[in-house]
Each structure stands twice: as C-alpha cells, then as structure tokens.
Amino acid sequence: MTRSKVAGWLLIVAGMLGGMPATAVTLQFHAWGGSAQVNDYLQWVAGQVEARHGITLKHVKLADTSDAVARVLAEKAAGNHDQGAVDLIWINGENFAAMQRNNLLLKNWVSDLPNFKLTNPAQNPAMTTDFGLPTRGQEAPWGKAALVFYYNQRYLSAPPQNVQALLSFAHTNPGRFTYPLPNDYLGISFLKYVLLALNADNPDLLYAPVNADSFAQVTRPLWAYLDKLHPVMWRQGDYMVRQASHLQQLMGSGELLLAFSFTAAEIPGAVTRYDLPETVRTYAMQEGSLANVHFVGISYNTAHPDAARQVVNFLLSPEAQARKQQLAVWGDETVLDLSLLPKAARQRFVSQSSHPAALPAGAINRLLPEPHSSWTDALREAWFERYGARW
Amino acid sequence: MTLALNNLTIYRHGEPLLSIDVTVPPGQVVAVMGPSGAGKSTLLDAICGQLSDPFSYSGDIILNDQRMNTVAAHRRNMGILYQDALLFEHMTVGENIAFALPRHVHAKTTAAERHEQIAEQLSSVGLADLQDRAVQTLSGGQQARVALLRTLAAQPAAVLLDEPFARLDAARKDQLRHWVFDTIVQRGLPALMVTHDPNDAQAAGGPVIEV
Amino acid sequence: MLRFPVIALAVRWIFISVLSLPIIAGVVGVMLPAFGYFPALGQDTFSLSVFAELWQVEGIGRMAWLSFFTGVTATGLAALLAIALLATFYQHSGLHTLQRLLSPLLVLPHAAAAIALLFILAPSGWAARIGAMITGDVLTPQWALPYDPHGVAVILALALKELPFIFLMALSVLTQPQLQTRLHKHIKCAQAMGYATVTAFIKVALPIIYPHLRLPVLAVLAYATANVEIPLLLGPNNPPTLAVVVLQWFNHVDLSMRFQASAAAVLQLLVTLAALASWWLAEQIVASWAKRMRLSGQRNQLSSVIQVFAWTGALLFVITGVLMLTSLVVWSVATYWTFPALLPEGVTLLHWQTALTALTQPLITTLVLGIAVSLVAVTVALLALEAEAGFMSKRTARWQQWDKIAVNITLYLPLLVPGVAFLFGLVWFQQRWLAGSVITHVFVSHLIYVLPYVFISLAVAYRRLDPRYMKVASGLSKSPWQVFWQVKLPMLFGPVLIAMALGMAISFSQYLPTLLSGGGRITTVTTEAVAVAAGSSQRLSAVYVLVQVMLPLSGFALAWYLPGRFFNPAARAKRRQKRIAANDTGT
C-alpha cells in the first residue's frame, strides 16, 4: 500500500469513529437528477456526510450522465488534471466503459473501502463486473436493478407477458406504447431485453465480445421485430422520448398504457406523489428480466479523492443502503450481502408495508444478465443506422 | 464683476453662425435679440461651457478678467435660467435651493440655520411655507421664482437667461420680468439674456444686440 | 484621483470589449475545430474534411431546414400579427389593455413559455379533455402536437414569445415624442382623404415605423433560428433542429464529436445568416409591392382582412395565455387527474413543498447571479451613456460616428450571433485559461446577454432626459460626478429600476449560457425547469414554471412600486401628513 493510500484509509476510519472530521471540503456528485426520490435520497446523504465527516456534498443533477463524462474529458483535454468539476459520478455500462477507456476514473480504490467487503465480491462477480467489463477497482457498486413493466389497470386487464405478446398488444392498442431512444440507458436496455428474449435459445453469443457474424445473426430477429413494432408505437415511432423519465410522464398523463422501468420502486413512489394513476400495477415479464448493477466512480482529476472515498464508503454502509431500499425513499435494491451483516443491521432491510402499485414479492421469474458491454455500442449504432440519426 | 465676450463667433459645421463682441458690467442685463435658429441658445452654451458638436467657437470669454475658454463648465460659476423652471422633481422646494448653496456655505452653517435662511428667502418672494412642498405642486410663476432663488443661491459670478419668460402668460410675465431684472441689478451681477421678444429686451433696460 | 468623465469613458470602452471579445473569442473557438484544428485532440492542421463529414450525416439538410423554417415562419407570423395589432388598435382604447396583457409575456423565459405551451398542446391537456367530453373518448387523443415533424409546436412557442417583443418595441417607437405627433398628423391627413384607419396606418405610418423596427426584428429572427430550449422541449427529434443537434453533439461522450459539433455550429451561423438574408429579400419584395399598393388609391384595402387577423390573433393569444396560466396552477396542486376529467380529484401542496425544497439553492443562485449581473450591467450602461453625453458629445462628428457604430454593432452582436455558435468556443477558452472560477464564467456569459437589453432600455430614458437640467446643475457649480449622482440618477430612478428588473429577467431566463459556462455546476431555476420538464412529474414541472414566471414579475412589480416611494417628495409629504394624522388620533 502506498503512503497516500494508508493516509486515505486512516481518514476513513477516523471519520467512521466519529473522531476528527476531515477538513471542510465540497464535493460535486454528478448524478442523473430526473427522479424526485433519488434527489431526495441524495439530499439525505448530503446531510449525513456533512454531519459525520464535515463534507459538503452537492448533487449536480444531470439530464444525461454523458454530460458529466464529456465534462471530465474536456477538462483532461484542456489540461485540468487536479481541479476537476466532477468529483463523484453515478455511472454504469457504456459511460463507465467510456471513462475507463479514456482513463478518466481514479483507479484501485474500491477494495480499500471498509464497507465494500459487505458486498461479498469474492462470491458475487456482479459487484466487480459492469456489462461484462471488469471494474478494476474504478467504481464501487451502489445498487441493483431489474427491468420491470407497469401498466394502467383501468384500461388493460391482462398485460403482455413476453415480447411477442407485447407486439400484439401494440397492434391492438396502436399509439399506446413506446421506448426511449437507444442513447438513453432505458432505451438501450429495452433493445437488449428484446434481443435476449428473441435469442433465448442461444444466448451465449451475447455474452462474448461482439463480432460482425454474431451481430448479424443475433440481431436479425430484433430488426424484424422492431420494424413491426415502430409503426404502431406512440406517434408512429417518429418521435421517441429522449429520457426514461419522459416515458413515465407519458404514462402518468394517460397517453401510454404500458411502460417499463429499471427501478421497480419508483412506480409506487410516483403513485404516492400523484405522478402515476392509482390504477398502475407493476409486474415482470414471464420470460425473465434484464438485470444489472449501477456504480459510483471518482474522477481522476478530483481535488479531494479522500473525501470522495469517504462518501462512497458511506453510500455502502448498511444504514445508507437500507434507507435507499425503502419503498418510501427510493426502493433501490441493496448491493450488500445481507448474510454478512449483523442481525441488527439486517433488520433494517426488512420491507415495510407493501403498496398496490409495487412489484409483488417474487414477481421476478428469472434474471437476464446484461450482454457483454461491446454489444451496447454496436446495437445502438446499428439502430441509428437503421432508424435514422435521432437526437 | 464683469462678463466680456471678445469677438466671440459661433460656427456650425465650421460655418460662422453668429458673432458678438460685448462687455457686460455688473448690474446690467444685455439682451441678444434674434429670430429662432440664429444660434442664440448655442451662444449661451458656448459661454457656460456646454458647446457640443457640430458647433464650435472662436474668440474669448472673460469673466472678472479671467479667461474662461478652457475652464470646465462647473467651474465657470455662471448660473443659467431657462423658460422652464427645471426644478429637480426629486427634491422639495427647499432642497432645490439648499442643493445650490456653495460648499463653503454648507461648511459654515448648520442644517437648521440653512433651513432658516431658505425660509427667509422664500418668504421674501412671497413663497413662505412652501419649503417642504414637492415642486410639482407649485404654479408656473411660483416655480420661476424658486428657479431664480436657486440660481442666486449658488452665488454665481454672472447669469445667463435663455428666453426666460417665454412660457408665462402676459400678466405674470410683466410682473416676474421686473422682479428678475431688479434682483439681478440689486445683486450687481452681469447678465446676458437671449430672447426673441422685444418687450423682454426693453424691460431689461440694458443694451440690445441684434444678431 | 481619476476624474469621473475619464472613468466613464473607460467604462464605455470596457463595455464595447465586454460584449465583443467573448463573442469573437467564442466564434474563433468554434471555427478552429470546424476546420479540423484542435490540438488537444491531436489535430493541428487545417482542412475541410470535418465539413465533408458533416455533409455525410443523415438528415443534416433537414435539420438546417427545420431551423430555418421554424425561425422564419415564427418571426414572420409574429411580425405580421404585431403589425396587424398595431394597425387595428393604434387609435383604439384596446391598445393599453393589449399592452398590459402582452408585457408579462415579454419577461417570461423562453423555456417557461415552451413548457407552459406543452401543457396546452399535450393530448392530456384541457383542450383534449374538452374535446373528449364531446366525443366521449376515455383515452387521450393522438394528435400531432407537440413534437410534430414540421416543428409547428416550435413555431407556435416562438411566435408566442416574439409577438410581445415586436409589438412592444413598435409601441415604444410609436410613442417617441416627435414621431408620435408626426404620425398622428399623417394618419389624420390620410383619414381626411377617405382612407380607413387601418389602411391609413399600413400605407402611411408603417413605412415610417418599420426602419426603427428592423434591427429588433432581425435580432428576434436570429434568435429564433438558433434557439435551443424551445425545439428541445417541443420540437421533433427525427431529426431535430440544427441548434439542438449542436448541443447534443458537443455534449457527446465521444470527444471527437466536437469536430462535427463545431462544423454544425458554423452551419448554424450560416443558417441564421441565410434567414437574415431571406428576410431582407422578403422586405424588398414586400416594399416594392407595397409601393404599388400604396398608390392604388383604394381606401379600404386589406382593412377588414387585417382587422379579422388582428382580432383573431389577439383573442387566441389571450385565450392561450389564460389557459396556460390556469393549467399551470391547476397542475401544480393536482392530485390524481384521470383523463378526461376536467378537474383533478383533489388539491395538494405536496408538489410545491417538494419543488421549493429542491429549488432553494437554485433560487438563491438565480437571484444572486441575476442581481449581480444586472447591477454591473446597469452601472456599465449608465457610465457608457454618461461618456456618450459627456466626453463623446465634445468630439468631432467623425469621432462620434465611429463611436456610435462601434456601440451599435457590439449591442446587437450577442443578439445576432447565435449562442450555440459561440458559447461552446467561449467555454473552451474559459476551460483553457480560467478553469477554476465557474461562477465568473456564468457571470460573463449572462452579462453578454443582459448588457444589450439594459443598455437599450436605459438609453431611451437617458437620451430623453432634458439636457437643460444638467446645464442648470452645472451652472450651480456641480461637478460632472455630482450632476450624475445627485441629479441624473435620482431623476432616472424609475428607468434604472426597470432596467434592473429587465436585466434580472434576462439573466433568470438564460438556459444555454448557464448550462455551458457553468458545466452543470451552477444550477438556476431555468436549468432546473428544463431538466424537470422532461422528467417524470408533470406537476413538479408546473410548479417550476410558475416559479419562473413569478421571479421576473416580482422584479418588475418592485420596479413599478419603488419609484413612488423614493426620490419622491410628494409621496414623502403625504406620508408625513399620514403620520401626523395617526399621531393626532393616537393621543
């Protein structure tokens, strides 16, 4: 261990013991800001790290995470190597791949976090793999998500249970379903889900790096499917929403009858806030649900790496994770391995009262892991090639 | 105190517009008569140091043997009166006059003393009890009187008058005219008045210059 | 000690450079990568290859066309309607009502107008709900607006914002003292010859007013062709307008997209230029047609067409405004609201609570930034005007001419050069040399947009001041500084406050400059409102827009209220009397 690492470690321990607070620093946490629940949770986190470590945490609400990635990249290009505007960043998938490729992330710091052990990384490779890419200690897991669907019960009694049923639903209810553009995280996830579902017999190709042959073979049924789906989508698929949150808004206004989300818990939360009708119900597709882990990274040019590590360590604490998992707060599933926690800490995770709009317990039939990350770019580029450069 | 204009010529775009050569002794009002457009107001601008393009001038402006040509406008000590009273509307009647008092007066007196002085001056011209009034509430004749009091409060070395009575009705005009000229004569100030009204020139009692 | 006139002159030159330098630097910063030069990415030779690649991008022609088409159509619509309104209501008692109705929309941020319009155009809005009452539908209709492929929704939003601007600009021209009496006489004359009032206005007054309106209209046109937030919120995305795509490309993860983005920004500049040129051409055609029409001798020409157009326009405008406001208010307190119910099931303050908690920080930032920027802008504008009245007026005509040209060019530079064409370049420069101070960057980029409006607004009042007041004060031996501080400023107190309020309103409404210069670190109410508009909560979005509306309006309310209280002896006397009366009754 280098000297600075030791020092950082000591700071973290000292902070945990509630001893001397670190010197007052301000950190910019760049995180997607489209969800009131997530924003509120981060406000709570800010209050906690202020009280515990004297760190002022500012949530920079991004409309698109790639904005922050571009920012770090621009800083690097401009030669700003130690006063970055981005300290912490909420990422996964291709944004992580882009940052890793361009060396924009602080390296080898995750395993030094005391709370990281609680994710049981040795037994749980998902904690150190992001869309098939090894994280190499450049980002710490923060939460887990699975792709779930939700529908308006008032108009729809039996929602589609697989991709084929989804297509026939769209045909009988033209204009009542859509998905976000593939440069949105949820948009590309939908494509991956359809791809996995249509290739359920032979998914292995999707877990290896993409090549021209495998791509052509695997995507053929996908294009055929989308060619049939688009004309019967919302606005005939001509305008497609740019962001996942817009999809939920359209569901709330009643324009759509069926939508999907990567955070099951935001559905009942949105119903409580009147943003979705009371008649909304959440479910998971019979054939399985796309699942992944999302992470927090530290930019390579942060001025306060130690404070940033302290914050991430707090995000991984049982207290913060349990609060995040509460339906009323955010409902994001924890990345901690509950069997490693003491009984008292485990108690925190016991779920509270259920909500009619919440995903029923045990609804997820099986998890479909994310394809290898090389598929993301290939898939998106091919999609734009085929359906036009929409921005 | 004497105001002398030595071969003063006003040019417009370099073309001569008007020439004047006069010496105004203390207590005399010299009237400059001419049709509108003759450059009468421009002449006053030149004398008080406010001339702007496209106008220019040659000759000398002498006040008390001192050449004023290059002296900044606010150091020339020449009060000016227009046909409009131009009282500052963000000040009361009394504040308008207090504003004009020279710095050394402010330094030597207390606010109460100044208030008293101004009250006296106002009552001497029949405007008692108006000190704290907003200027907009005064009649035209009252405003004109306050304007002259203000000009005199600054203790000018000379007074310039630009069509001072053009806005007043005939009855008031006569009354005010005599009061203004009397006051100037009493104070022994040299005064230059531009006007196109022969009655003004006549009432001033001094030489009349036609341009 | 420096003399005041010297300081004022220095500020006038600073004013010119504050406006022109960042824009020139920004355009250069965009031009270089567009021509393939960007050393940070290892490209240090000039070439046209980036443009060649841009040309290969699918739909690039359509994007450029959309920008051109939406901008020109909206401006044309707004200009025609503004003229029709003036012609119809010029000597009508409705003029002042109209003025009062349109003024608040002038200060409404573009983003707020777009989001508010979204509430009406949406298939879940009131219009759709009323329609469904008739048809008996239980599901939302599927009509083309918003996001329609031809940008009709964008045109509506742009026109909605531009109409008040053009109309009020024209009105301020019309009420210029000398012009007003002249026009009155002209129109009287024409009426005496038997021309209908409207026809007389078009044939006699318009040719006199229009030259004064040309520059503001061109500024509006330039802005409309390059606006980002309105097409982002209401426009199509298959493909979107050019300005939107420039923003997306500049923010793309792949840094090499910067080349393409820069080239597209240059293309945007050309599109804006093309729009300005087309407008000029259209002016020529209309002028020659109007000349023939003018001499046709017809007394009622176009009169009824124009009146119908004006009344319809005014009516639609008022209905839209009222619907927008009520929709926002109702949505902001709505609980569940199933289609096609006309009203929500209940009322809640939850959204206001959520929004106000989340908005505290952005609100403070918005206010502090707005006040600081306006204060600086008003000070700079006042001193620059002082230099014009003082130093400049004593120079030769040629000097004054050059000075005037320099000021006019710099004034309209930020209004004519599209933000997307220089802000990215400016940010690059700021990143390169002053990476540390984000707030300064945002401050400068706001100042670029605030200064021209503050200057134009103050200049009108400043130049209208009777110069004899200054001569009188000077005759009372008051120095230029004393004249400025003790006479001019108090006399201009009202206009100064209005300019402050205007400056703050402009600062509040900035989206792109805040977003880019702040790099996301500075969030204002407007950037938050745009982010939330595409978010999951329509109700929250309504609250944000209402806050956006209230901010500038409260500024103007103060600007209207304060002059009655300060520098106003009449009010002081009244207050004193009241106090005395109160004391009397008290004892």
Structure description:
Chain B: Residues 2-211 form the ABC transporter domain. Chain B: This is ATP-binding cassette domain-containing protein. Chain B: GO terms for molecular function: ATP binding. Chain B: InterPro entries: AAA+_ATPase, ABC_SmlMolc_Importer, ABC_transporter-like_ATP-bd, ABC_transporter-like_CS, P-loop_NTPase. The complex is a heterotrimer of chains A (391), B (211) and C (587). By secondary structure, chain A is of the alpha/beta class. Chain A has helices at residues 3-16, 36-53, 65-77, 93-101, 163-172, 185-198, 212-229, 244-253, 266-272, 305-315, 318-325, 343-347, 374-387; strands at residues 25-32, 55-62, 88-91, 129-130, 133-134, 139-146, 148-152, 258-261, 280-283, 289-298, 367-369. In chain A, the strands form three sheets. In chain A, strands 1, 2, 3, 6, 10 and 11 form a six-stranded mixed β-sheet that branches. Chain B starts with a strand and ends with a strand. Chain B folds into two domains: 1-77 and 156-211, Rossmann fold; 90-155, no CATH class. In chain C, strands 1-2 form a two-stranded antiparallel sheet. Chain C is mainly α. Chain C has 24 helices and two strands. The longest helix of chain C is centred in the middle third of the chain and has 40 residues, at 350-389. The B-C interface holds B 45, 48-54, 72-75, 77-80, 82, 84, 86, 88-92, 95, 99-100, 102, 132-137, 150-151, 153-154, 156, 160 and C 393-397, 400, 466, 468-469, 471-480, 482-483, 486-487, 490-491, 493, 567-570, 572-573.
